[in-house]
Amino acid sequence: MIPWELIDTSRAPGSGGELRLYRRGREYSIQVDGNELMNSRAHGSEEALAELACDRIADCLAPRILIGGMGMGYTTAAALRRLGPDGRVVVAELVPAVVEWNRGPLADLAGYPLNDDRVIVREIDVALILRAEQQAYDAILLDVDNGPEALTRKGNQWLYGRAGLEAAFNALRPAGVLAVWSAGPDQSFTRRLTQAGFEAHEVRVAARGKAGGNRHTIWLAGRGA
Ligand SMILES: C[S@@+](CC[C@H](N)C(=O)[O-])C[C@H]1O[C@@H](n2cnc3c(N)ncnc32)[C@H](O)[C@@H]1O
Q1: 3-state secondary structure (DSSP) of residue 53
Q2: What tens digit of pLDDT does each residue of 186-215 get?
Q3: For the segment 46-98, what is each residue's pLDDT rounded down to a tens digit?
Q4: What is the dihedral of CA 222, 140, 117, 100, to 10 degrees?
Q5: Could you tell me the distance, in angstroms and rounded to a whole number, from the CA of residue 212 to the centre of ligand 1?
Q6: Which residue ranges have their beta carbon within 6 Å of ligand 1?
Q7: Which residues contact 205 (CB under 8 A, 6 or more apart)?
Q8: What strands lie across the sheet with 18-24, from one edge to the other?
Q9: Which of 83, 94, 72, 73 is nearest to 16 (CA)?
């Protein structure tokens, strides 16, 4: 068995945890305080997050998408594959080192999505964008923890409560969709989405796409036109 090799570490701003990038052969892992946030062996559900949301906005001529956060770039790459030449993707990533890793050792995993002219990366808490922008996005894709509970940093809890969900609702264009990734189901989160004004449902998707694996949960929450 090849041992894990520590490649780099960085602390998430705002009293967040320590992120560590590990490599074992061709496999990479990003961990926060010892919990795995992302592993390059399983990225089917991260891609499904983008595909399901993009399918919901397929009629948009020049769709604008917000993705939080970058991770290993699989969600971003999948969105770029689904969007046409006039689509635009804003990726909000809290930890500058993660962006650096995506320009370096992780770049080829998802096929160099940061080299695509349709992408803008902002090294910022996605919550700041949600608070600041109104009716700006056709889809907002959130995969910043392992589900609707803060893991990377305590402040992420705001995103999953009433105020954060209402901010996401307001940042979407009228027929927009919010999609949220999770390792497992959470009925109370579905209720909170509904209370914030969304028409929400859960979809179970395979962690490793066609190769199967565990089932992960994605909420698709539409604003309704
Ligand atoms: C699970 S990974 C995302 C995996 C990604 N979907 C992919 O395809 O590889 C979570 C990412 O969100 C970032 N993050 C955590 N909290 C954030 C926040 N509040 N704003 C922006 N990015 C955040 C983390 O640093 C990490 O890069």
Answers
A1: helix
A2: 999 999 999 999 999 999 998 887 787 789
A3: 999 999 999 999 999 999 999 999 999 999 999 999 999 999 999 999 999 99
A4: -160
A5: 23
A6: 37-38, 46, 68-75, 92-95, 98, 125-127, 143-144, 152, 156
A7: 44, 45, 48, 52, 215, 216, 217, 218
A8: 5-11, 18-24, 27-32, 35-39
A9: 94
Q: Taking the chain, what is the end-to-end CA distance rounded to the nearest angstrom?
A: 53
Report the atom number in ligand 1 closest to the C-alpha of 126.
20
Residue 207 identity (one-letter amino acid): A
Ligand 1, atom nearest to 47 Cα: 8
Give the other-Cβ count within 10 Å of 89's Cβ: 25
Model pTM?
Answer: 0.97
Q: Ligand 1 center to residue 18 CA distance, Å?
A: 13
Residues 6 or more apart whose CB falls under 8 angstroms from that of 84 comprise none
State the amino acid at position 85 in one-letter form.
Answer: P
Question: Residue 215: what residue type?
Answer: R
Q: Find, among 80, 93, 86, the residue nearest to 50 by Cα.
A: 80
